[in-house]
Every structure is written in structure tokens, then in C-alpha cells.
């Protein structure tokens, strides 16, 4: 498919030229058609901007309306009329009432109450612009809800496959936006296979985590927002990790921010938080592996963390190591109690994934990996939706 690229038109000339680049080999691609993984090696493709220093842009962006699209120079859509938005992003960064120097990024304030909205806003915008007729994705829960809402907003049909035991509230939420939901035996990787079958039979575009290049672009704006809110980057980021798009996205954002002249070479230490019931990234990190083999029999009530194998494993592990951070598995049996504690003591709409991040904070402070003087951002990735 060879569509004319509107990026060539002076009417929509963007500040920074943009192309896609493979995260593994040196292949690059113009943005002219829908693409999934790299055709050479099946690695994720990432959007790369030819950035030049633009210190003035930082203040200009802040003066714009409070959605993630205020960062439009650093996002893949530049014609505002094409943007599919429900007002995602620019979520509150709240000072913890319980912990010194700890801030909570409350992602439940996004549309469909989770950080998944950010990625889907960018991905659905680009899928629609590049001619997708149907949108499809597997989900562990919240991504499906977000895709269903953004698909409705875009006027495109949505097919979502998810594990049969996904909480009914999430299934109902997807259907409430008009999505076709199919329940499959197994976990998200099995749902992914079903999506591939569906697309082979019916057509449609696969928006699986990191199997298209734009969800990570939406998610990366979380990194920009930390600088906006704190005036500097935190020392530590605690990130509940399923597919890891946000972790990869923020790490990419810090590099972009340095090239824009907004920060120096400093970086937060990034910690991936998983459950003891499904911790493929933690195991791979601890074993010094470059990729994360599939976790057998994943079991966790933090549904967003029930991702036994991640397409972005290599990118995640590299970011964790380059940041001098780490990966930690918390006790599955304590996650729900910790999430309730966040709700009771901080007053935020926190799901179990956020409870896992709280347990990680305690554990890493206890071992000394995080000092009480460190500025920490704990990501509360979604609301308490599994009821
Ligand atoms: Zn490649």
C-alpha cells in the first residue's frame, strides 16, 4: 500500500521530521502505510524524530490545553483534525500523604480510568489516518477497554480477545462501547493468537502492545509530564509492568528531552514491578538475560500484570539496566491489601497493579535500593475496576 504522505505537505509541515526505525536492525521506513513489526526481524518499530534543540518549546507546550496532545510536535499526528482524543493525559502527580519524597502519578484520571488511554489515543489516531477499517487487539483488561472507547470515538469497529477469566466488569465495559469481545481459554498470549486468526480471516489492524509503533508514543508522554510537574526528573520510577510500553516509552522520552535541550544526561532509575505469580521480566533481569522467556502458569489478580511474555522484553530489560534500576516481584498475596491501603490513605482510585508498586516501594526502601531522600514517582496505572 502506498498512500501519499501528508507529512510532505507544507499545509501540515511538522516541526520535527519523523520516520519509523526498527529497534533491532538498521531498517527505517517512511510513515506511509500501516505497519506492525519489522519485516526483517519481527522486532518492534519505533517512531524517530529528527530533533534539534528547542528550549523554547517546553514553555510553549505548557501553555496549551491540558491533554497529552499539547506535546503534538513529539507525537505522530500533526493535523489536529485527525486526532482521536477523549482528553487523555496530563494526569495529577500527587504528593504521597504517607511517604516522604514520594509522588503518585494517578493514571486513573484518564478516560476509561487507566494509562492505556494514552497509547490507544495515539495508535487509533494513526490507524485511522493510515486507513485501518477494523481495529483488533488482545488484552489482559484495561487495554481492551481503552481500545473499545477510542475505536468508538474514531467510528471504527473493534475486535477484542481476552482471557475467559477476565473480570466481568472489564468485559462489560468493552461491550458497552460497542466492541466485539471474544473470550478465549488461557492468557493474553492466547488471546493474541486469536487476534491474529481473526485478522487473517476478516482483515483489520493489530494494535497489540508494541506490535505497532504508536502506542508507545502516547505512553511516552508520561515521561514528559514528570518533567513538567517536578521541574526535574525524579531519582526513581516504580512502574507496574505487564507489556512494558510505558517504561519503554518514558525511556525514549528522556532521550528526546535531552536532544531537545530540556535535560542533561541524568536519568531516573527505573524499576519494573511484577507479581510473584507472573514475573518474567524480573526473572530475566536477575538472570542477566537479554530477553524474557515465557512465565509458566501465570497467576495474579493484578490483571494488568498477567503478561507471561512481552514483545518489548528486550527493550525493557535494556532500559532497566541502562537506567541502573532494577526489577522486583512482590508477594501476590499482599497486592490487594496494598491497593486498598493506597485507596484508604491516599484517597486515589488505585487498582491492584498500583498496590504492587506500593509493596515494591516498601521493599526497596527496606533493602536500601531506594533511599528515603530519593525523589520517587510511583505509577498508579489504573483505577479499581475489577469488581
Ligand atoms: Zn528490524
Structure at a glance:
By secondary structure, the protein is α/β, with parallel strands linked by helices. It has eleven helices and 13 strands. β1 and β2 (28-29) form a beta hairpin.
Helix content: 25-40%
Flag low-confidence runs: 1-13
When the domains are counted, the total is 3
Number of helical stretches of at least 4 residues: 11
- Identify the CATH class of the largest domain: Alpha Beta
Annotation keywords:
387 residues, 3 domains, Rossmann fold, alpha/beta, binds zinc ion, 11 helices, 35% helix, six-stranded mixed β-sheet
Give structural notes:
This protein is an alpha/beta fold and 387 residues long. The protein has three domains: 14-82, no CATH class; 93-114 and 216-380, Rossmann fold; 116-206, Rossmann fold. The protein contains eleven helices and 13 strands. It has a six-stranded mixed sheet with strand order 4-5-13-10-11-12, sandwiched between helices. Helix 3 (142-154) links the parallel strand 6 and strand 7 (158-163). Helix 2 runs parallel beside helix 3, helix 6 (215-230) crosses helix 7 (245-259) and helix 10 packs across helix 11 (352-367). The longest helix has 16 residues, at 215-230. The radius of gyration is 19 Å and the shape is globular. The relative contact order is 0.14. Bound molecules: zinc ion.
